[in-house]
């Protein structure tokens, strides 16, 4: 009886640990924070074009802060069920609004003559459109997609020295499936789509590294 009790206690502790880990991973590696990080990464890479910090702030406001305000407004007005937007149909208005905001950021970069930044943002925009279209009929994982985009962008810009970050991508995929927000098919397709879109897009734009650096 003692052994059986200890076994069930062990199982309970492990489950609690997994619950906490999955929640922490989902919140820390959340698209809400990572989309602005991806934009900062793009601006940092384009700093050689003489970009000013105030422009970065303005771009972050358009591409990050405004969509966040829209998201929080929808959440407070109960137009979306929860932070993770588990109902697929509720994601579409937020995606459309965010796409409009991103288009504004691209226009701003173009008007200021920031050609490399325009190219990077267009790759992001094309990726967002693909995810948006898929979302209209299937619940592809945005968590997996955005993490894949961010990690692949980092490696494309910095010579694939940070390939180990894909370990975090797997952790995100596990967390989303464990919490029953997605199936394995949805996270795998999200991760694969995000990775391929960035590699192909940046290569077509003549930016980044295609493979391992020396």
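^ structure tokens above, recovered residues below v
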């Amino acid at each position: 009886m003692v052994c059986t009790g200890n076994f069930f206690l062990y199982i309970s502790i492990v489950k609690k640990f997994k619950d906490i880990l999955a929640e922490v991973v989902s919140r820390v590696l959340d698209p809400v924070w990572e989309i602005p990080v991806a934009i900062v990464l793009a601006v940092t890479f384009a700093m050689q074009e003489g970009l000013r910090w105030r422009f970065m702030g303005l771009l972050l406001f358009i591409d990050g802060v405004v969509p966040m305000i829209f998201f929080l407004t929808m959440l407070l007005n109960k137009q979306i069920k929860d932070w993770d937007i588990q109902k697929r149909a509720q994601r579409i208005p937020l995606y459309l609004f965010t796409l409009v905001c991103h288009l504004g950021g691209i226009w701003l970069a173009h008007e200021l003559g920031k050609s490399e930044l325009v190219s990077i943002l267009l790759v992001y925009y094309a990726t967002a459109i693909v995810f948006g279209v898929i979302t209209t009929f299937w619940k592809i994982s945005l968590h997996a997609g955005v993490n894949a985009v961010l990690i692949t962008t980092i490696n494309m810009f910095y010579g694939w020295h940070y390939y180990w970050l894909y370990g975090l991508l797997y952790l995100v995929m596990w967390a989303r499936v464990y919490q029953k927000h997605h199936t394995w098919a949805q996270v795998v397709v999200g991760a694969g789509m995000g990775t391929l879109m960035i590699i192909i897009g940046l290569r077509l734009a003549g930016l980044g590294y295609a493979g391992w650096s020396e």
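Residues 2-28 form the longest helix (27 residues).
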